[in-house]
Amino acid sequence: MPVDFLASEQKISYGQFSGEPNEVQLARYFHLDEFDLAFINNRRGNQNRFGVALQLGCVRFLGTFLSDLSQIPVNVQWFVARQLGLADVAILSIYAQRETTRREHAALIRNQYQYREFTWPWSFRLSRILYTRSWISNERPSLLFDLATGWLIQHKILLPGASTLTRLISEIRERATNRLWQRLSALPTPAQITKLEKLLQIPEGSRTSCFDRYRKGPVTISGPAFNEAVDRYQELKAFGIHELDFTGIPPVRFKNIARHAGMISMHKIARMPENKRAAILVAFVKAYETIALDDALDILDLLITHIAGEAKKLGQKKRLRTLKDLDKSALALAEVCALILNESMHDELLRSAIFAKFPREKLAESIATVHELARPYDHNFQDEMIEQYGRVRRFLPKLLCDIEFKAAPAGKATSEAYQYLASRLESRKLLLEEAPLDIVSNPWKHLVFDKEGRVTKRGYTLCFLDKLQDSLRRRDIYLENSDRWCDPRAKLLQGAEWQANRIQVCRSLGHPLNPREAIDGLVRQLDVTYKQVAENFDNNKAIELDLSGKRPTLTITPFDKLDEPPSLTSLSQQVDGLLPNVDLTELLLEIHAHTGFADEFTHVSESNARAEGLTVSVCAVLLAEACNIGLEPLIKHQVPALTR
């Protein structure tokens, strides 16, 4: 494992001043209290008192003594000098002309303020802290270096050499990593390890290994793509890795190994030592089993949405084709209604006048046309959904047989419908008997039930898919082995863990420890607010409630626009005048020139080679995605970096 992981900024600032301390740092580390002044005033000569005071502040701030006090920033020197009543900081040049003086003063400060060297007991304590952080997290070594530096300064341990600390951190991280390899490689049985090793082999007649195939997720939204995603999940599940006991292995480290396995080459894994190879394969299968299930559910969600969208498009096309007939019939009926509303027309002559203008057969035909073509207000193109049943049949068996859903209390009805359809999957009957009807909402009733009130298989299945999607998004229905579609309650602190953290969590959120008090407080707040709204509702001119339609509608008048003061208008004009007119493309490239953000995009294989003009390509893709304009407006065939 590499030892030299420090950035140049860290190397420069370790045990040295990297800039002038701010006011807060000056007050915290360089302020001299009465105890400090008494210790400093025991030294003879202003130069010695000044030097000792600066050494004391440096060891507090930097964690070490400086060999050259001239490196101390000027603001620090004047801050300390004013506390000592010194008018000239130039006397620092005559301090410690003998090296022995500086060493003696440093020894006095160590004894007086109990500063210690980085010896065995303290290195052991720091090693335990760093090992714990390395084991439970995936923090960068440079971050651990800053953590160790802060811990040493806090506990008054003089900083060792930078190489000593970096070597210690590298050894600890390597120990934690080796322990992780050993723990993971010891989990599977010999039979499972043999099966895992076959992932790295290329079967006869194939160009890729199963390992590479499992790394690739679905790329299309279709029934066959969903079936392939479920097969991928089932094949990974067949390894039985999910049945192993991963207790005590930090999830962050586990996911990091799996992510690493998803990027590196299969051949590189095959060349690894046996325990490391087994550990990576275990983490890969366990993580990608969950990823495969999430991918399958993502496709299902998008597929149901796509089917509904296709039905809506089809319904809109049909409606456009029939609008002429509907308008013709509606106009004819409108003329009939106009005759009825004509007060000069006698009632006994009304029917004869209507039939004289519109024959009975024509009126009956117009009424039938309106009933056939008009759509109710809550119609969501369910009729056209029935035509999509052929697409549903392609993935329905996989959905009902290979995926096991769990239900929260609110998803009980959806779960019962799922189990009912799964039990009758092999049946070829077009009508269902004793089907759970709690999932059937009013818009679906005319499709689920036929004219005799019987439940149709097509309508019920499509109604179930619509309800399933809604329940999945609400997490009323969930999957245990999923990450994105799991039960949110499972991620909450429970049992002893919750009791141990309950006080801290409640205080941080500002909630009382007793849940009944919190609920009673919300009830009182809601009751008071409701009564205030009810009392002021009749006199509130900004609110209108219309009860004439089938559904009540509430209209709230927006707030009046606030006039901008002339000073703000003038300021906006001045700012606009100062800003040059540039294209977005130029602006993005200029930001890169100042910040270099595009250089932070790296290849997924972690290789360092970069194509020529990659910065221009990255900025073009970012602009196309951010503006939602696609790549076409940015493609220029004469510019190599802007080709497709």
From TrEMBL:
Residues in domain DUF4158?
5-172
Please list the residue ranges annotated as the Tn3 transposase DDE domain: 586-642
Any Pfam family hit: DDE_Tnp_Tn3
The keyword DNA-binding is assigned to this record:
yes
Keywords from the UniProt entry:
DNA recombination, DNA-binding, Transposition
Question: What family does the database annotate?
Answer: Belongs to the transposase 7 family.
- Spell out the protein name for this chain: Tn3 family transposase
